[in-house]
Amino acid sequence: MSEKLSIKLKILERNYPLLIEWKEEEKLREAAKRINDLVIRFKQHYSDKDNQDLLAMVSLQFASKLLDVEGNQNTQSIETRIEQLCEELDEFIKIHT
After folding, report:
1. What is the value of pTM for the model shown?
2. C-alpha span between 34 and 94 (Å, rounded)
3. How far apart are CA 38 and CA 43, in angstroms?
4. CA 72 → CA 66, 68, 84, distances in Å?
5. Beta bridge partners of 5
6. If we measure between CA atoms, which residue out of 63, 65, 57, 64 comes closest to residue 41?
7. Smaller CB count within 10 Å for the chain: N or C?
8. Which stretches within 1-97 are classed as H helix?
9. Alpha-carbon span 13 to 74, nearest angstrom
10. 18 contacts 9 by C-beta, under 8 angstroms
11. Rounded distance, CA 5 to CA 75, Å?
12. Does residue 12 sit in helix, strand or coil?
């Protein structure tokens, strides 16, 4: 059983204690940094918004990017499968002609 690491991530001046796998620490710290950086950018453009609005905007931005990545992965896996089927079909034709 792997040991867990206790960390605190600061997002918008609030600390969030987490118990995580050691290998996840760097990724989670980078994620928190990106959230904070994007909130700061949004704050500069939308100074009248409160933190909840800013976090909602950041969440929407990240969710949109995630959907783009998932869409690209699906497209790539379909293209890969089509290429495999074409190769199998070519091989079949060579054998049976």
Report:
1. 0.70
2. 53
3. 8
4. 10, 6, 18
5. 20
6. 57
7. N
8. 25-45, 51-95
9. 37
10. yes
11. 37
12. coil
**70 and 55 Cβ atoms separated by less than 8 Å:** no
Q: Which of 17, 25, 19, 26 is nearest to 3 (CA)?
A: 19
Other Cβ atoms less than 10 A from the Cβ of 54: the count is: 19
Residue with tokens 């070519």: 90
**Scanning the structure block, which residue is given the tokens 């933190």?**
51
Enclosing H/E stretch for 15: strand 14-21
pLDDT tens sequence for the chain (97 residues):
578 999 999 999 999 999 999 999 999 999 999 999 999 999 999 999 999 999 999 999 999 999 988 887 777 777 787 888 888 888 888 887 7
Query: Dihedral angle at the C-alpha atoms of 53, 55, 60, 63, nearest 10 degrees?
Result: -160
CA atoms of 84 and 14, how far apart (whole Å): 50
